[in-house]
Amino acid sequence: MKALKWLLGIMASLILILVVYLTVFFDLNSFKPQIVDAVKEQTGREFAIKDDLSWSFFPSIGINLGGITLSNPENFAPATFVEINEAVANVALMPLLSQEVEIAMLSLDGLTLNMVTKKDGANSLDGLSGDKAATAPKEEAAPSEKSDLQLQSLQIGGVSITNTRINLIDEISDTKQVFMLNSLTLGEFSLGNAADFAYDFSAQMPDMTVNSNGEGQLTVQHDLSKVMISGFSINTDVAGDSIPNKKLSTQLVTDINVVLDSQTLQVAISKLSAMDINATGDIKVNYGNKIPKINVQMDFGDIDLDSLMPASEQTETKETEQVASTTPAEEPDLSALKTIDLTLGMTVKSIKVSNLLTQDWKMKATVKDGIANLSDFSANLYEGSITAKAKLDGRQKVASYNFEQTLSGVQFRPLLKDAANIDLISGAANFNVKGSGKSLLPDNLKKNLLANGDFAIADGSLYGVNIPQMIRSAQDKLKGDLSAKNDEELKTDFTSLTGSYSLKNAVFTNPDLSMASPLIRLAGNGSANIDSQTVDYKLTTSVVGSLAGQGGGSDALAGVDIPLTIKGSMQDPKFGIDTSALFDAKLKGETDKLKDSLFKKLGGF
Known about the structure:
Layout: H1 2-25, H2 32-43, E1 47-49, E2 54-56, E3 60-71, E4 80-92, E5 100-109, E6 112-117, H3 131-135, E7 153-156, E8 159-170, E9 175-186, E10 189-190, E11 195-205, E12 208-220, E13 226-239, E14 247-259, E15 264-274, E16 277-286, E17 293-304, H4 313-326, E18 341-353, E19 356-368, E20 371-381, E21 384-393, E22 400-411, H5 412-420, E23 425-438, H6 442-448, E24 450-463, H7 467-478, E25 491-504, E26 507-516, E27 520-529, E28 534-543, E29 561-569, E30 573-577, H8 579-601
Parallel strand pairs: 5-7, 5-8, 6-8, 17-18
Antiparallel strand pairs: 1-3, 2-3, 3-4, 4-5, 4-6, 7-10, 8-9, 9-11, 11-12, 12-13, 13-14, 14-15, 15-16, 16-17, 18-19, 19-20, 20-21, 21-22, 22-23, 23-24, 24-25, 25-26, 26-27, 27-28, 28-29, 29-30
């Protein structure tokens, strides 16, 4: 016990002698000129410490700095590159003797950084890259030895960073961006225990402003192998003309775990909301590989993309088209796909875009080695379902792609009306399509896409035409009655409509259209030009049932092939009947009957 007292007394005496020496005999400010000259020699910049340097002692030892400035290169405005109002660091003295670090307080106030890029390309960082050190001969590093000094504990009384401002000034584009960390605080912190933290950030850019604040808890394990951020809540407001509806508010609540030994990161998202879109998810990253391996699973609620479109969409589209017409088109650079290793799983309750509503999305996709692969996609739409697979190969300068898609039991009329504003066909539709192509330029997408498939539509109607009425009208004209009027609904019911198709050079070709109904049979072929949005079909119709139920009249045309045409735009197709060909067919039929009658009267000769 007596020896311990002597030891403590000696330690206290040494500390007292150190304090007296530093305060009485050691003038810290006498080193200011040497520090200023050293910085100027290394950077070529003016460096100043306006305030006196001061010590702080027991129970903590530290230094207070203030009024620090470092200039920008000559002829730059602003003239100051870095400015610090005050910096304070205090470390508890006694725990240092036991290899324990206890920081009483770290604070930084009034840091201003002016980053300037001049019109000739020169910027504020020129001359600060340590060229002298780079040109010095390199010595071979001696084999590292593990230090015996280990940190027994770390305690921080608090951290406070306030009024930090970064000004990015670009004279080339004549723009200025301002980023402000209004405050960043960390409460009492020690290894193995959670510490509260909070931040307040804002930014002003030419086209938008950002305000964000958040809070959470930080925990670092004793062995420094794991860092955890729990209950991290972030609220952000973004405003600007380029933002949907000119304002966007988001909220994110997440837990973050970083395991340093295995070099893994996990982000658990318990809440993500923005523009009435809500989601949860989980993100895992293995950053120990040359290309980080990322696995993302997101689950979204209802998404209405139409509400995010700007009101002046039509005007903006016209302006974009004008710019595009004068700018040479270039293939998009997809080389970045080679630097991504991503696995994505996603579910969505519903998505509405351009009035097209889909529900119950399920998707699995990967991006690896320059290839984006949609391995599985399914969704429900219009009382039916859609499944799809697709692959985009970005390893070459001109990308290539292929896809497969199936529609099953989809109500076709509302789908066409919502997707393309076309009211042409109704019924339960089944579609199959396979396609491939090269180039992602809009014009080349239409020209280079090769596709084929088949379709079958059951229990539907053709809108815009009443084929039985057209037949009756043609029949009346053949009888010489040109006064017949049509006041019936322009609709033709059918039990089935089937065919196959191919797509090449933006032209959709259907060689084997077949339609069946209780009254008529229809067969035909034709094409539709996707580029010009026009249709050209030739159809042949024959009457197989009585037309009396749809307007009365005799069936004098039963068994006669009736030629029909569909021409014009997809939005407003025009249906017609070739009465000349119909008359020729009818005349041939009557002539055949006359020949048969004469043949019988002549006794079969």
